[in-house]
Amino acid sequence: MMSSDQPILEVKNLETHFPLEEGTVVAVNGASFKVMPGKTLGIVGESGCGKSVAARSIMRILDKPGEIVGGEILFRRNMGESSEEVVDIASMDSNSPEIKSIRGGEIAYVFQEPMTSFSPVHTIGNQIIEAIRLHQDISKEGAKEVAIHALGAVGIPLAESRLNDYSFQLSGGLRQRAMIAMTLVSNPTILIADEPTTALDVTNQAQLLELMSELQTDNGMAIVLITHDLGVIAEMADHVSVMYLGEVVESAPVDDIFHNPQHPYTKALLKSIPKIRSNSSERLASISGTVPHPYDRPKGCAFGPRCDFFMPGRCDASIPVLQEVRPVHQVSCFLYDEGD
Amino acid sequence: MAEESLTEQEPLLEEITSQGTDQIYSASQWQLMWWRLKKHRLAMIASITLAILYFIVIFADFLAVAEPKTSEAKRGEMPPQGVHLTFDGINPKLYVYGTKGVRDSATFKKVFVADDTTRVPIKLFAKGYKYKILGVLPSDRHLFGVNAPLKAEEAIYLLGTDVQGRDVWSRLMLATRISMTIGLLSVSLSLFLGVLLGGISGYYGGLIDLVIQRIIEILRSIPTIPLWMAIAASVPQDWSIIRVYFAITIIIAMFEWTRLAREVRGRFLSLRDEDFVTAAALLGASKTRIIFRHMVPSFMSHIIASSTLMIPFIIISETSLSFLGLGLRPPAISWGVMLQAAQNVQTIALTPWQLIPAAFVVVAVLAFNFLGDGLRDAADPYG
Amino acid sequence: MIGFIVNRLILALITIWVVTVISFALIQLPPGDYITSYVAQLMTQGEVVSDQEAAALREQYGLEAPFVVQYYKWLQKAAVGNFGISMEYQRPVTEVIGDRLFLTAILALAAALFTYAIAIPIGVISAVKQYSVTDYVATFLGFLGLAVPNFLLALALLYFGFVLFDANIGGLFSAEYASAPYSIGKIINLLSHLWLPALVLSIAGTAQVIRVLRANMLDELRRPYVVTARAKGLGEWRVILKYPLRVALNPVVSTLGYLLPTLVSGSIIVSIVMSLPTLGPLLLRALIAQDMFLSGTIVLMIGIMTVIGTFISDLLLAWVDPRIRMEGG
């Protein structure tokens, strides 16, 4: 068994760039986070903060011309017989056999678009069986059995006949379930779910989140849940990393994030959630300004220009680093910088 | 996903911001299109090429040297002459050598060789045959020429002569006029039919749409060349050049409108439910007014791009038909008519300069394609 | 799918009907009928044809009846394979056409095969390696292919064959096979001649298919299902070949419907330039001689052949695209 106090995945100072003709887009700028076995890490941030790019960096499936230019992605592989090996995914060739066996085999990835995540011209069965046979030495018939079982496990009725269906014959909710079934067929140790519920209606959302928790309890896999929805985070996550403009600005257990947020950005994010019991005359807060363009990042702290606690000469002079302010609670902000 | 769209949209944003923010909001659709087009290098080169070709169209007679229809059998199949440069003091002077005909000792065929004992100076704005500038102003000045040739040997044939001794350069200038305009005319006609029928189809929908769509599909599944050949062959032999010209234009447009009609229909279908169309209808605007004042202008740029991409098809069609002897007929001069001379291998091997009109065809078709692509990109940055 | 096929079949039948009307109208279009030119021809040879004789000839060929009656009679005979007598050759039209229809079909099919065989790999590579040298070269050649008319390409080829190899590369058969009955040897001989005109013919279509495929591939490569396939752990080329290519090929299959008429059209011109024994040169001669039954029959046959080809490509499209196959059960 894996020791559960060691992270199964540790991302250190990840930097992912998109060099374009007009300039380089720094999508992930030195982000760090840890994923513990069997736990759920929530990564939260506004759209464009680099959370999806970070996820795809881990899978090494970045769209062109994205590339990892720095940092490490340390993944603890279970080599069977209680032996383990830590590999750096960031340093692998993105088309090497090693990453291909991790991708889909040990780290699975589900994402936002249930409408188009399946190929429209191949049956669901074809695509699931392919995923099974890619990582397991199993006959076609055997793989079909596994596929039917997997579809049943995610609550798809009439699983056997669904195998011959095309994705456009399924509803959005069923499609997302089928997607999860496909990613789980090879018993991954980590499931990266990138905005899995965004495109679903509320009922389907709730059912899907419940399904994911159940599957986590059954399989003991770790989940990296990427979302902009703090409600989903509150429901699912054990630990939360808040991202802003390609950086992790705060990282803490879920309760700390909601009850004792430290970073001004996290605070602002929480204020923007409507509360049922709030005073009706109170206006819903929104964060002033907009996310800066990744071509021209602000000097110093990336959140500086939008921050209520902006300290001239300090926040625009140097870049804060992530440091522990309390046990397992890290923040990157000069407000908490005692060393200076 | 924001990360994905980033790589897609940012270049455009960058492009537009470089124009200054205030300008963008006040810029019309056409200005925006022009700014984007300017960035398309190939399209700009193509525009310049086309401008040159249309300059030839307008000033064909001025650029020509010899009356393109005068044949002189004695000067048949003369090769192009080299242009030489000399200095008269500091004034540069261009001249060509005179030519003399000799019998090839092996084949006994008459061939022409340069006679370097005679120099024929090239004069700018020389007097030549009479013509009318733009069809009105009579003139006999030409860009260049020789002063009233006294002897047959003293003439300029920059691109040689054809079998009847006609100057290929001069003929090429006039052929350009016909070949470059026949495309425009056919396109205008196709455009009219395409917008009308495509518009009706897309705007009204229902049965009329179904019928027009089926007609388009039927027309498109019939091979056009044999049909064109058959129709063109039935053009009476005694028709004048002008009538044949218009007949060919109409024959080509009869089938080509289907391309545009499809596009127009697609645009109409997507626009029909737009708010501004509904608004116009609620204000009581008539259908014609809605179509021509509101809907057509909003996709005119796309239509122009598609029309530009259609011209090359028409140029190729005209050239092919004329080449087969079924399109324009002498004494009309078009690129295809000129290429008729190059029908067999022997002719090409002996007088390769008769293939020069082919180069014009290729250049013109390429230029229209590049410009059309550029226009399409400029009209639709997301498409 | 049945609905789709029935739909296309009805359309094909209507198109064939339109083709018959057009073919027959074409026959009627020339001012002065064949008899007029026939009489003129006889006159130049010194024979005297009286008006009564001409009228008798017209009667014999049924040229005096109204259009609809003539059309109906013609159609009736055509339905049983009697396309009339070629007035120029004085032999039945079917006999004059002989195996030319077959050779035209073979040429167009070979050109279609070449088109896809060349265009698909190039289209895929230039999309996957967008903005690479391969992409630029393919794009440039694509444009050139669009810009050079078929007949020029054929001429250029003939010229180079003449200059470089001193050989006449026209024709579809060597002299010894030209009028021999079909045999294995003749077919091999045909294939050894066929590829060159087929290649010439395929260039324009290839350029078009490359452009369509490249654009579709670029679209499809960005689709989420490609990410899904990669995330499964499939190798990059396996991902590309199984998923985006498969989807991008659908619109390419549907180009076959438009490609066939173009190829058949082009084959007429290329055949004339390269003197291939297909329908092309025969049609040209028939048109110039106003040999109405011959030219009408050729246009009819070319039309019907293309409609059948297009219908087959529709079936193919229904077969490859489950979105069509599943529609209406």
Biggest sheet record of chain B: 3 strands, antiparallel
Percent of sequence in beta strands of chain B:
5-15%
Choose one word for the global shape of chain B: elongated
Instruction: Name the shape of chain C in a single word.
Output: globular
CATH class term of the domain at 105-290 in chain C: Mainly Alpha
**Helix-strand makeup class of chain C:** mainly alpha
Query: Would you tell me which CATH topology of the domain at 105-290 in chain C applies?
Result: MetI-like fold
Radius of gyration of chain B: 26 Å
Domain module tally of chain B: 2
Determine the most extensive contact between two protein chains: B-C, 41 and 52 residues
The DSSP helix count of chain C reads 15
Number of strands of chain C: 2
Give the name of the CATH architecture of the largest domain in chain B. Answer: Orthogonal Bundle
Order of helices and strands of chain C: HHHHEEHHHHHHHHHHH
Cα distance spanning the termini of chain C: 6 Å
Task: Kindly report the average pLDDT value of chain B.
Answer: 75
The CATH superfamily of the domain at 105-290 in chain C is MetI-like
> How large is the share of residues in beta strands of chain C?
under 5%
Assign the CATH architecture of the domain at 105-290 in chain C.
Answer: Orthogonal Bundle
Strands in their spatial order, largest beta sheet of chain C: 1-2
Question: Explain this structure to me?
Answer:
The complex is a heterotrimer of chains A (340), B (383) and C (329). Chain A has 10 helices and 12 strands. With 340 residues, chain A is of the alpha/beta class. The longest helix of chain A is centred in the middle third of the chain and has 18 residues. The mean pLDDT of chain A is 83. Chain B is of the alpha+beta class. Chain B has 2 domains: 75 residues, no CATH class; 208 residues, MetI-like fold (Orthogonal Bundle), CATH 1.10.3720. Chain B is 59% helix and 13% strand. Chain C contains 15 helices and 2 strands. Chains in contact: A-B, A-C, B-C.
Keywords:
A: alpha/beta, four-stranded antiparallel β-sheet, 10 helices, 29% helix, globular, C: 329 residues, mainly alpha, MetI-like fold, two-stranded antiparallel ribbon, 2 strands
Helix-strand blueprint:
The complex is a heterotrimer of chains A (340), B (383) and C (329).
Chain A: E1 9-20, E2 23-35, E3 40-44, H1 51-59, E4 67-78, E5 84-88, H2 97-102, E6 107-111, H3 124-135, H4 140-153, H5 159-162, H6 172-184, E7 190-194, H7 202-219, E8 222-227, H8 230-236, E9 239-244, E10 247-253, H9 254-259, H10 264-271, E11 323-326, E12 329-331
Parallel strand pairs in A: 3-8, 3-9, 6-7, 7-8
Antiparallel strand pairs in A: 1-2, 1-4, 4-5, 9-10, 10-12, 11-12
Helix pairs in contact in A: 3-4, 3-6, 4-6
Chain B: H1 2-17, H2 21-26, H3 29-38, H4 41-58, H5 60-63, E1 84-88, E2 91-103, E3 110-121, E4 123-133, E5 137-145, H6 168-204, H7 206-220, H8 224-233, H9 241-271, H10 275-282, H11 287-323, H12 335-339, H13 345-350, H14 356-379
Antiparallel strand pairs in B: 1-2, 2-3, 4-5
Helix pairs in contact in B: 3-14, 4-6, 4-14, 6-7, 6-9, 6-11, 7-9, 8-9, 9-11, 10-11, 11-14
Chain C: H1 2-28, H2 34-44, H3 51-61, H4 67-79, E1 85-86, E2 91-92, H5 93-97, H6 100-128, H7 133-147, H8 150-164, H9 184-221, H10 224-232, H11 236-242, H12 244-273, H13 279-289, H14 292-320, H15 322-325
Antiparallel strand pairs in C: 1-2
Helix pairs in contact in C: 1-4, 1-14, 6-7, 6-9, 6-12, 7-9, 8-9, 8-12, 9-12, 12-13, 12-14, 13-14
